Predict the structure.
Amino acid sequence: MKRDLPPTALPLAPSAAGQSLPHESAVAQMSGAAHYIDDLAEPQGMLYVAPVCSPVAHGHLRGIDASAALALPGVRAVITHADIPGDPILAAFAHDEPILANDKVQFVGQAIALVVAVDVMTARRAARLVKPRIDALPAILSTEEAMQQSSFVLPPVHVQRGDAAAAMKQAPHTLRGAFSCGAQEHFYLEGQIATAQPLEQNQWLVHSSTQHPGEVQHWVAHALGIPMSQVRVECRRMGGGFGGKETQAGHLAVWAALAARKTGSAIKLRLDRDDDFMITGKRHPFDYDWQVGFDNSGRITALDVTMRVNCGFSADLSGPVADRAVFHVDNAYHLENVAIHSYRCKTNTQSHTAFRGFGGPQGMLVIETIMGDIARHLERDALDVRMANLYAANPGNGRDTTHYDMRVEDNILHDLLPKLEQTIEYRCAQEAVLAWNSKPHHIKRGLALTPVKFGISFTATLFNQAGALVHVFTDGSVQVNHGGTEMGQGLHTKVCQIVADELGIPFELVRITASATDKIPNASATAASAGTDLNGRAAQFAARSIREKLAVFVGGLDGSGAGAIEFKSGQVSSPKTTRSWLEVIQAAYANRIQLWSDGFYATPKIHYDKKTLSGRPFYYFAYGAACTEVAIDTLTGESRVLKVDILHDVGRSINPALDIGQIEGAFVQGMGWLTTEQLVWNASGKLTTHAPSTYKIPATGCIPEHFKVSLWPQANREDNIFGSKAVGEPPFMLAISVWEAVRHAVAQAGGDVSKLNAPCTSESVYRALKA
Amino acid sequence: MTSQSLHFYRRGLRVEVMNVPPTRTLLQLIREDLKACGTKEGCNEGDCGACTVVLGETDAKGRLQLKAVNSCIRLAHSVNGLHLWTVEDIGTPEALHPCQQAMVACHGSQCGFCTPGFVMSLFAMYETRVRSGQSITREVAQEDLSGNLCRCTGYRPILDAAQRMASYPSPTPPMLLKSEHSAYIPCAQTANLPLKNQTNQRYHRPDRLSELLRLRAAHPRAQIVAGTTDVGLWINKGHQQFDELLDVTRVAELRRVERYPHHIAIGAAVTLHEAFDALIKDRPQLRDFSLRFAGLSVRNSGTLGGNVANGSPIGDSMPLLIALGANIVLMSQRKGQTVSRDMRLEDFYTGYRQNVLAKDEVLAWIKVPLPAKREFSRVYKLSKRYDDDISAVCLAVSLHLDGSRIDKLSIGVGGVAATPVRARKTEQLAHSAIWCRHRFEALKESLQAEFSPISDMRASGEYRRAMIGALFERFWMESQGEPVIRLESLGAAKQLEALS
């Protein structure tokens, strides 16, 4: 039977990659036809789960009284620690997270039990009727307390190069400071959700909104005490992830699976937004102490930074997050004599987790703060100070090696920064700001231009591998699968573009289906910005393998070498004939040629010694710079971002529209982190900003009309897919320009910037102004 | 007797849903009963807009009025008799509505979860503004989309799409009722779990004031509801269950704004959006403030009467109304007679969310004096985010000068006490004084000393107290004609540029 396919005679661009094609799901998303987990047809008899959460930050759990909950009509079961047939402990890194609290609770929000009921609201209502019996213990709620009590989730890490202490003594100038940055909630619009369905022979189907189906599969099997081969996890798309559905999604899926096991029914677990805030981890809050020595030009000669990382109650991904912060304390700058101390503090709060940038933003924030302070101390323009500290433009002549012993070989900032500076006439803009600030007015302005250099690759080298499957069907249509997941970033669109080009066929012929653990096993998380780098290449290799087989086949037909066969615009040409793609596929099938293939990719060159924190953890760096102008109201401390100009490096863009979308979205998310997004825990350790009513991510009104993004026009110097560079995380840190611009304005208003903490809410700015 | 059924019009059909409990939300009805899963639950408290749908109602002149609302905190029964559009209803993948086409062309979706909500807000914008020939500027788009959050795009592409949608060929206007045949749909909730005491469950929606008063007297235990922008949270987040609800939003008399020689009377069921429109007509300076009152979709559902009667200490309309000298009218039916009493708004409140309403009384009218000749009124709000956020502090000041002498100084404050309050001590201190810097400083000191605000997640008590002074300072500057720039204004960047 003939299927409806888009006509292949359309006047198509010869290449899909490089085009600003719409997101592959855009039309479905617009018309409400794109399915998320909560929208999937529900199996018969599906039941619903709500968690019972600890109201106490730290205490002995003596038991629970579930009688009132069980008496509520519609309640089917209450599940506790005792109902876990497999390993009751989760967490890959330190094996320190109980699936459900057993004998102690460690934060307000920790899941103690699960209530299963015939509908969601009944389950949620019943969950509140379950009464845990807890003997409260003193809780650790700050990194100061954790340090005093040596409460750590992982041992401290110290990275040193040169002799920071000696260099500090000899430095012509020194400054010191201390400040903090707050946590950030992911606020993916789709909250955490999973369904679990028992199949025959103790096999399980799990739908999970996850960035890492493989990890969900692992934990579900682990908790149920069955082999991974009996669990299939699927995810077509997430309604946002941002790192928050990397490890955190596993908990939900495991809970759903335990409830399904106990009741024998299919289970859906969709967290209420408030529970999502209460239970899941955030971006790590950091406390910094720093001291810097520098010369008259502002060049740093000595640096000592202590970072106290609030990890929450368990290690989760805190080790690699804190490591990445250590790796990015240099941002774009060469640090000769440096000592970095990273303390991974254990506190009685949610276990903080991956969030876009993965510690990178927290690492960069301190050095950019220092750059701004050096400039003010020397009364020099901050951009000049930043330029003076950059890594060398060309490697081999010194100032080219990071504090973790990786040579920076692709530094483009010596070109990129001046380019942005000239385009936006930075010097004139700075003059205008200073001229305004000299007037007696309650509004003061600030301007800052800050760079980003962000290392691309998982720092754990083993994760830098990916697989893909490409199927060509007999009607010429193509289906792709790979180990990556779609959370809105456009990964699937880019992969389809890559496969279409590799096969020389129209983009419309290539479709992607849900990410699933039975298609691509052992896939890494879609994280570290590396989704396209890894999976795009794997898919390209899979498509290439099919193309090569077809080339040999067509070459055989026409008596030419396989190398002479060209695949382009839906045509397959040999020196002798041109055939349509469909013709070739049908002939190949008839001749029993394999029309599907796998592909596998492992990032080259990288290596890294976890003990010494040295090596080449990153395949390459992504660069960018942003210039932001803000105004503050000195009466109230309110601020507004007035103007943003960005020049960002995505290498040779596979899809400029999607890349610009990532850059703008990341910038705004970073702006939120540093301005309005404040998470507040009260004195009992309860998160009081528990929903969007109290936690304020940027809204439409926060976006300046002047918000310009340009792409740096050069390809990646390393051999990466299409010459592109990763884009998910690096532009998040462009928003540090907002922080620096606010600090500039506060200083111009005569305030004490050393008193400013992030996020710079109006209250935080007001305090700095009055200090 | 079982729970009530309700009906509405969708895709040209009359849809009747059977056995709908009073507290079932519109979002539950859409997703679980209609199985229309395009509409998403993002926060379940009306703050993210992922659940936005469009309601249509025929106004007094017979014109269909469309507005975007949050379906998650709207009660299902409240749409009885209205037209409903969800994201599935306005275009198909093959024939998208202009707002959907523009969103695709501008790359306005990434993860796509907020998208149906944005699309519905854009649809309402298109049908109300583009069809009547208004142009969509960037500021208009920012204002109308204030209740929709996106975490992926950074909004620029969505704002572009809003400005571009008018350039696509105009489709036929939204379909109205074609057939009186009803599609009967069971309610999934009652099918799943028959509720106890269903006979006592009732959603009352009177359409005349006399009927409202009668029902109020007859059902003193019924919870009065209007736009349920707060009650929706009691239900979704507080898990409160009500057997009886009394919905005031269909009462024709209470949906009017009546103009009198010296005041306007705003019916308690007038939406916040319409109420602010009426207030802005007399006092255009209130516009920026009105736009900061929640998002448009909340202002489209919530009522001024609801905000006032709910009496939250951080409700934003009360400080303003207190400063403007508003009175309220409470009505009841006693022994067959309609009884009413009139009082100053500040006297309505007796404690945290407590008021003087008798069991048989309803809030009927809010009466706002027209501006006096030499009145200088301003209202200020401080919050972490300018738009769609709750005040840490709200300060409203109305100054009536006789020459340089203060004839009357009227100050309403929110966020500093258990109720919205009038700054009586400071007002007394101002009496007959000269409005000069010296006097202002004394008044400021008094104003800051008059209240002891608490610390919470929005702000510290110390900061709140400081801000009462800072905002009063801003009032002073504005009263002196000093060039004050309000960063809260979407046009702040342009104002600054113009001044530099």
Q: What stands out?
A: Chain B has a mean pLDDT of 95.
